[in-house]
Structures are given as structure tokens and as C-alpha cells.
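Blinded run. Sample ID left blank on purpose so nobody reads anything into the name before looking at the predicted structure. Input follows.
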Amino acid sequence: MSTHESDNSTPHRASLWALLRSELAPFPGRQAAVWRFLLSCALVIVISMALQVPYLSLSIIIVFFTAQENTVLTRLSGMRLVIGASVGVALAIVLIKFTIDYPMLRILGACVIAFCGMYFMRISKTGVMGFLVALLVFYFQSFADQIDDPETLLRALLWAWVAIAYPIVLTVTVNFLLLPARPAHLLAGEMCRQLDDVLDQLEARSTQSPIAPISSDKVARGVLVLHRHLAFATLGDAACRRDRGRYLQMIAGIDRLFTAAAHLSQLPMQVLTPEQGNQLQVLRTQCQALRSSIADGSKFPFSSDMESTRPVGGQLDGVLSEMGHALLAIARAESAPNASPSQNREPSIAKDALSNPVYGQFALKTVLAALLCYVFYMAVQWQGIHTAMLTCFILALPSLGASAHKGLTRIVGCALGSLVALGATVFIIPHLDSITGLLLLTLPIVAAGAWIAAGSARTNYIGVQFVFAYSLAQLGQFGPSTELTEIRDRMIGILIGVAVSLFVSAAIWPEREGQTLQAMLGRLLRSIAQLARVGAGNETATQGAAIDGARLQSWSLLMQNREMQARVALEPGWEQAHDSVTVQVTTWLAQAQETLFAVNWLQIVEQHAVSDVQQSFAQAFETFRECAAKRLEWMANRFAGERSVDQGVQLPNALAALNQYRTDAGVDAPAWIDEMLSAAQALNHCLTQLESRLPAEN
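Blinded prediction complete.
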């Protein structure tokens, strides 16, 4: 029994170690973000200590909430936080002014304001302002339970606004002056990084050297990151906004290059023909020139040699031809007019803001959980665990899985921060006698938390909570603290808040994403069907834009499915509620991803086949693609729980017609027939594997 348990625990330890290495690994921009966090926090500590501005721990956490991945987001978050804090403090002052002698009215008024704030958070893209208003008003009304003098109470509220506002201004300034992460520069850097991977694959193919393949996950993340950087670049850079259409075409071309490199990385090594060797050399030269032009901000010096390259038969030739066409598309984008296409902006307020009862239920659950924690710590007269009430607002997220994930990261971060604070209190603090010593102790801890906070969304809140827990324990007063009860109380308060919040969320109107995960899978399959139906044929601007748009939508939905699956895995009681995070769903996602890759390869092969494809074979191939698209749509309906007739039932017959055409062609058949047939068979295999594991029809 013990041997079996030991064997099972080994893979878990290995996977945990792999996760830690992945989350803590350096990446471009992470070190610069840490320096910005560090300088902002150092300035906040010195200013607050020197001028005796209270609530230093609150000021430090505001630094982490303000600083974002780029300067545009940092500026937007700073503006929203200042507005939210100002409105929250103003409402708290008005509320306390009229209800200071009526505790019940004060609490009810705070509940009403908090409900409105959380409702606004759920329906608006600027919901962080509503969140901050709800959090501050509900928390500040509890000040009246501790401070009897109205003037002292008013000063405390105004000092709280100062402690929030000045770190925001300071952080925004630091982020714009110290190693600024401007979206336009991030976009160029990501393009160069993807081109480096393409060049590595071309170099390995030329020298016949082994190299790790590019995964389809990396392809999906790459194209989404490019579009994300462009979206922010158009907000913060007038040149990018003016040339948005050209940048979109460049991103589409680099996506094609990167996707083709991923296909190239999965092909077996083979002896190159002289034509293939020459084509590889030309591609490497052109990719190097493209990378240099992006890094320098100059025009891409495209060579006319690429326009004369043609496939000579075989999978490798198809990939190389696709790379050549991608470079040609980028060159055309460079010379295209700077007409920016119209952008379909999403409304800032949800269309169903007044009709969907889920929003009101969400706000009511949040206020109820916070009220329960408030009543509890007031009843037991344990003011130190007021973090339980704050935790209920912090964990207020649309889905139960997302709330559980944030609760877990909050507990882990608080535990780590509390342990560090405990060690510092026992072994280091008694020997400190100046602010210099306090900074030498605090800044390395802040740097460690900043490194984690600058990472992925999966673990970044651990770093924020790590620094906050340490700050609450050690920076709550104007000098070193040796009080251990603060550490204990904060940890207990967070544990209580997480437990109450998750219990209320799971017991009252639970929002379980597991119930919609299969529907999301259905949307993914429909987008892949749309991509298959777009087809290839002659490369035109309209058709290229349609293919690029369909591919982007498919990759985006694939990543959304994976993120949702990770959140569903943390939903309490998912094992009894549904079967959404079992090996079955993991298999569905993996096979859907392989199907997407197979459809993309089918388009590459068809697009770069020789121009003299016979009409009869072209029609048979078109029929096969249409049947594959209909089969995908039928499977999408199965995932969505809808009854439908399989319109792609003729798929085997369509594939048989292609096989018959190959048989009739005999030994003298051109190479492009075998390549197109191989791509069709690969897609049919993916569809068969996916169909064999479909959910049962209702």
C-alpha cells in the first residue's frame, strides 16, 4: 500500500516542480517589471515613513494593483483606481455623517452601496471602480465602531484617501519613466521573438540538427499575444492607431510564418534537394531581414527571389512555399495604404445589464458573505480578523472556480508572507534601529513578491498577497514591529473569509462554469468548421483576411476552453455535479486542437498545390472539405446538447472519391495529389478520433 502511494506521489511532485519552474522562469520584460515594482515600493515606504502617512500596507498593495503589463494599462488602471477611491471615500463620509448614531442604518446603507458597486463591477468594463467603492465603503463604515470622535474619524477617512491616491500617481510616473513597457515596443519584441523561433527551425532544417518542435499551444499563445499588444498599442500610440490596418496584415503574416514553422518542426528530417536547400537559404535571409526591419522600425526589404519559388512536391515543399507566401503578404502589407479598418468596439455596459438576474444575484451573494464576516468578528470582538470581510469582496468573481482559484492563491500568498514576517520578527527586527535597515530587510522581500506578481495570471496574485501579508505584519506602524498577533489574526481572517465566501457562492445561486464547458467546446468546433469552409484556392486579400480571422477565432476559443477547464477543476463539488475536468474533457480538447492543426495543414497543402490541379479533383476536394465542416458542426451540436442530423455523413464517400482519383492516376501521379490526399486522410483521422468520444446524445 505504501509503495503504491509512493509511486503515485512521484508524478505529482514532478508535475508540481515543473509548474513552479514554469511559473518562476524569466521571460522578456519580467525583470524590468520587478525593478519598477521595487522602486515604487521603496519610494512609498520612505515617503510614508518620513511624512507619517498612515495605512502604509494599503499604499503598497495599491502599487501592485496599479502597475500593469504595459504603460497604457497602467495609466487606465491608475485613473480608474483614483476615481473609485475618491467616490468610495466621499460616499463613506456622507454615509457616516448621516448614520453615525444609527449603527443599523449605517450597516444597511453600506450594504446598499456595496451592492450597487458589485453590480456595476459585473456589468461594466470599468467595473474595478465599482469594486473599489464597494470595498472601501463597507470597510470604512466599520471605522465608526472603533473611533468615537467624529473629527478623528473624518481625518482617518481622508488619510485613507491620501494613502491610496498618492501611490497611484507615483506608480504611474515610475512606470512611464523607468524601463517603460510601451505596447508598441512589446509588439515589436514579440514579433522578433516569434521570428527567432522561425529562424531556429530553418537553421535546424538546413543543418539537419535536432530541435524541439513548436507546440500548437505556443502557436495559439503567440497570435493572441500579438493581437493583445496591438490592441493596447492603438490606444497609446498615434502611429500604431493610424497604421492599424498595416499592423494587422503584418501580424497575420507572422502568424502564418510561425504556424508554418510549427508544421515544419513536426516533419521528419530528410535529405534536402538542391532546390530545397536554396529555398531554405532564401527564407532564412528574408526572415533575418524582416526581423531587422521590425527591430529598427524600417521598411522590410523584400527580395523578388521569393516570388519565383514554387513547391516541387512533398510536405516540406508545401511548408516552405507557405513561408514564402507569408513573407510576400508581409511585404505587401508594408506597401499597402495606411487605411485603418473600422473597429467594432464592445459596449462598456453589458447589453443585458437590467434584464439578467445573475448580476443582482452575484452582488447580493458578495454583500451577504461580507456581512456575515462583519457580524462574526464584531460579535466575538476580534477586530484583527477584519480581513475576513475584505476577502469576501476580493474573491467576488463571476464563476465559482475562479473564486476558488483566487482563494487558494490568497491563502498560499498569505501563508508565505506570514512565515517570512514571522522569521523577520523573531530573528531580524530586534536588531534594526533605522529606516535603512528596514529597507534592506523589506526590499528583497518585495522583489521576491514582485517577481511572482509579474508572472502569469495563474499565480501572480500569490506575489501580491505575499507582499501584502508581510506589509500588514511589519509596516503597519512607523517603525519595526515585533507584534506576532497581527500575523496570526490576518491568516485566520483570510481563512474565515475564503470559507464563508466559497460556502455562500456554492450554496446560493452557484455559477458553475462546468455546466457551460461542453457548450464552449461546441463553439470551438463550429469555429474550426468555419475555418475549414473558408478554403484555400487562389490567394486574394479578401480570402486571406477571412482565413486569418477564422484562425484567430479558433485559437482564441481553444485558449478560453483551456482556461475554463483549469477554473472548473477548482469548483467545490465538481465531481458530483458534472464530469467536466476528467480525462475525457482533456482528451476532447487535445483532439480538437489536433483537428484545428489538421485543418490548417489542409489549407496550406491546397493553397500551394501546383496551379494545374484538374477540375474534377478540385471539386472532389471541395466536397471533402464541405463534408468535414458539416461533420464538425454536427459534433458541435452534440457537445451543446442539441439534436441534429449529421449533414457530413458523406465524408467517407468523399474521401473514397479522392482515393479513387489517386488510384486512377497510377504511378505517374504528380506529387501534389499524394500531399493533398495525405492531408485529407489526416483530417479524417482526427474527426474519427473525436467522434468516437462524443458525449451521449440527449
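Unblinding after everyone has recorded impressions. Confidence is low (pLDDT under 50) at residues 1-8, 574-580.
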